[in-house]
Amino acid sequence: MSGEPSHSQTGGPEDAPLTVAGELEALPGTASLLIVGNDAPGNNAPAGRNCTRLPADAAVADLEGLGIYDLGLVLDLAAADESLLGRLRDLHTRRLVVAGEAARHFEPRRMLALGFEHHPSPDAQDGAYLYDRDSFNREREWNSPENWANPENFDKYRW
Asked: 94-121: b or e for each residue (b if 16 or more CB lie within 10 Å)?
């Protein structure tokens, strides 16, 4: 999913609106898709796509044996289960969108603590949350070998 614009970690009204339809449209035709919830967009898997569906009452144990998906959509959950989101985020999806009823189960501060970005969304009054593995840990100038190891100073200075 490289080539997509990177959004700030803090999220906010200046970010582009996040829609489920837009995320599905942006996926390549052979991308895999994981949908959690009963109110998924359309009841049929998009053509040519590996699509797996889990019910809204899915638990961490239900994820056993699942592979890695290009996009995960969490649209409805029976309860606020941070361990389920964490497992989906860390092991099973490259991009994870939490929208609709599922987004209302979680406090915004908890979602930010889990590494999700908040985006406005016409699909939900409270917005939606996105975790993109490719843009989460962006390169920082201070976190590079030029700014910390400095082996050329080992004999000059004593720390």
From this structure: bbbbbbbbbbebbeeeebbebbbbbbbb
Digit-coded pLDDT (tens) for 32-67: 999 998 765 544 455 557 899 999 999 999 999 999
What's the token pair of residue 149? 């190891």
Say if residues 157 and 136 touch (Cβ distance below 8 Å). no
The whole-angstrom separation of Cα 132 and Cα 49 is 20
How far is residue 20's CA from residue 97's CA, in Å, rounded to a whole number? 8
The pTM of the whole model exceeds 0.85 = no
Phi, psi of 99 (to 5 degrees): -140, 175
Per-residue pLDDT tens digits for 74-116: 999 988 899 999 999 999 999 999 998 899 999 999 999 999 9
Spatial separation of the C-alpha atoms in residues 33 and 145, rounded to whole Å = 38
